User: Fold DNA polymerase zeta processivity subunit from Tolypocladium ophioglossoides.
Amino acid sequence: MSTAAAEETTPVPTPEASALLASLTSFLTITIHTLLHHRRLYPPETFLLARAYNLPVRQSRHPGVCAWVRDAVAAAGTQIRAGSARGVALVLHEPRGFAVVERWVFELRGFPKLPEEGSRRQRQGDQEEDAREDGVNWADVNEALRGALRRVAYLGESIPPPPGGCTFSLAVELRDEAQPPIQHPQLWIPSEPSLQPPTASNPDTGSALGGASTTPIRSVQAGPLFFECWFVQGKRTPEDHIRGTQHSDIYNKTPSS
Assistant:
């Protein structure tokens, strides 16, 4: 979806990068709630009307759903912070066979790698002063995120709904050099072979990647913040139903995990 040159991350000062990560994870949280509503994965009456980026948005009011979204985005944020994540995707699956119906992709190839946690704590006292001098126009950042949310929400409510009873997962695609997140406790599980990108050990692209059609939603660029939003309509081929094990560069967090 992007050129290989965009794989390199841009170095960003610690306070600025930490604030950008917080902005990104907040955006992902709001967007996931928005898509859960617009794609009718839960009944409309289980959502309340809220506001974000000066826009009306929908938020699930079910404690279990809210906790899952919060924990899943936090786990994805850990991979983004470490510079391990190439992208994050909300993946919708058919209720039987787990075939991929839709993928809402947020490609993060250009997002900067942040310092280690200990290094960030050492600089915490200087963050407020540095943030005033970092040159980031936060009004532009918020406006860019607002525009992306509007485009995602518009597409999510305007295209035909997925089949009834669909489930979903949050997937993180790792960079080629990243270590798999298999530490204890294991928050992520390897994704299905149909969702695996080509690797050195497995040059074949997963059958569910690419989909029947790919729609660019919006490129978000404001200062050092850059990522792309895509919608991928699933192929629903027989291969999507095949489950197995192999080396995995995409890891999923499902509602039951």
Q: What stands out?
A: Confidence is low (pLDDT under 50) at residues 1-6, 119-133, 237-249. Residues 4-253 form a domain with the Cell Cycle, Spindle Assembly Checkpoint Protein; Chain A fold (CATH 3.30.900.10).
